[in-house]
Structure prediction request, 148 residues.
Amino acid sequence: MWNIIHILLGALIGKEINSYFLVFIIALVTHFLLDHVPHWDGDYGKEGFFKGKGFNVRKGLILFYVCLFLIGAFITLKLTLKENNPRILFGALISASPDLANLFYKNKNKYYQKYLNFHTKIQREARFLVGFPLQLLITLVLIFLLVR
Prediction:
């Protein structure tokens, strides 16, 4: 699932829920639930990643993901400051953290490797023509809900 979706959903959870504990739990659980929804992540070399060889990503796809991340971070930071509500930023960080943890895929710790295997196996991929529009729609709905 696109990182912006995790960021924005976490921000929405932080905006609407007044308990850091609940924001933490709900933002983390919804990350994995969203990853189970069929989506398009592009060709990032999933088989090589699953075998511990890392990512194999096209440069254009990296730029796309960086742009999505920056847009999500901008919206989250602007809303956090506007509403003076640090739970918004907290929710976004917690919701994005499972994907950020994937950046350390070379860590050979057996518990970390079990986590990576779990996180990779729950992913449900869809073709571009299904997954891309679905994620675009989810992103737009989340932006609407955050700024309303």
